[in-house]
Specification:
calcium ion binding; EF_Hand_1_Ca_BS; two-stranded parallel sheet; disordered C terminus; two-stranded antiparallel sheet; signal; mainly alpha; repeat; about 375 residues; metal-binding
């Protein structure tokens, strides 16, 4: 598992090193003829990750989206689309009443038959998943409105890139007055490599979210698309391209099983098929059972976009099918309350269903 994850990280590190080499070379040549970048003093780098930038930068984790922005699987996805806003609440209730909560959720899903036959159909599950996904969207919109009011410091209803850049660097520990001076003088900013990469990435996303007229100003709706690309088709497409760029080793815009599992160059598909490594098994199953919809062993950009779109009917259908595949003990194509209770770890999360086991595995 460590080796597989290591290969995943190495691929990204090699790309980063190459990019940094090219950038540094161009920068050096430019400095010979222009001006020297002005370094910014960091007040206290240990507090630069104090949570303030959470109001600004797009989060890596997006509720009800199958994959994180860094290419890792969303381990809470099944619980997020089954529980919706109740996910946070159910984590706080005593374990001995979780069964009662699941029974209540079961009754609310079972709507097709007015007599409540006691079985959940694929259609009922699909409808429920779509409704729970919508709850996450509404929650993101409410959170975004609050954050936008906080970052729009001059209260003009827009966020300019320079305004964003100032708050971003301040949140990372840079001196606000010096940042303002550098921005006003329109000079180069020398900063920590990680901060520079993050700011450049955010600038690309900022420009993408800036709809016509493109003036480097984001209104509240555009700020939502910037932080939550799942709310915008163009931003969702950009996020998918970013993920594909990180995972697609040969740059052919197609994702193979070996690339998705992050196997080293020269590895064979049979090695993936035979592997018992948890990392490999999870990603292999996700690739074959959910992502590769036509079963040809490749995931195209179109398939990846459909996989990442949480509001897609097909996405909800795939998840409903997976729930049935996981929990349908008698193979009748439906789920009973007993089957859901027997598989509560899948529906509500292992940390609630089997806390002791998770603690052992994590530590």
């Amino acid at each position: 598992m460590a080796a597989s994850r290591g290969c995943f990280g190495v691929c990204r590190q090699l790309r980063t090193i190459l990019c940094l080499y090219l950038v540094s070379t161009v920068a050096f040549l430019g400095l010979c003829s222009v001006v020297r970048a002005r370094p910014l003093e960091v007040k206290n780098k240990s507090t630069s990750k104090n949570g303030e930038d959470d109001k600004l930068s797009p989060p890596d984790h997006l509720d009800a989206v199958r994959m994180e922005r860094d290419g890792h699987l969303n381990r809470d996805f099944h619980q997020e689309v089954f529980l919706g806003e109740e996910k946070d609440d159910i984590e706080q209730i005593p374990h001995h009443v979780i069964d009662d909560r699941l029974k209540d959720i079961f009754k609310r899903i079972d709507t097709t038959d007015p007599d409540h036959e006691g079985l959940l159909t694929q259609q009922e599950l699909q409808n429920w998943i779509l409704s729970k996904t919508q709850e996450h969207f509404q929650e993101a919109e409410q959170e975004n409105s609050k954050h936008f009011q906080e970052v729009d410091q001059n209260k003009d209803g827009t966020l300019h890139w320079d305004e964003y850049r100032l708050q971003f660097l301040e949140s990372r520990g840079y001196d606000r007055d010096k940042v303002m001076e550098v921005i006003e003088q329109d000079t180069e900013i020398e900063m920590d490599v990680d901060d520079e990469e993050d700011l450049e990435r955010d600038h690309d996303r900022f420009l993408q979210a800036d709809e016509d007229p493109r003036d480097e100003l984001l209104n509240e709706k555009e700020f939502l698309a910037f932080r939550h690309p799942e709310h915008s088709s163009s931003m969702l497409s950009l996020m998918v391209q970013e993920i594909l760029h990180d995972l697609d080793q040969n740059g052919d815009q197609i994702l193979t099983l070996l690339e998705f599992v992050s196997m080293p160059y020269g590895a064979k598909v049979q090695e993936v098929e035979d592997s018992k490594d948890t990392w490999v098994v999870e990603r292999r199953e996700e690739f074959k059972e959910v992502m590769d919809t036509d079963g040809d062993g490749k995931v195209t950009l179109t398939e990846l976009e459909a996989y990442m779109d949480p509001r897609s009917d097909q996405q909800a259908l795939n998840e409903a099918r997976q729930m049935i595949r996981v929990a349908d003990a008698n193979d009748d194509g439906k789920l009973s309350l007993a089957e859901i209770l027997d598989n509560c770890q899948f529906f509500i999360g292992s940390k609630m269903a089997n806390y002791a086991k998770v603690v052992h595995e994590e530590f």
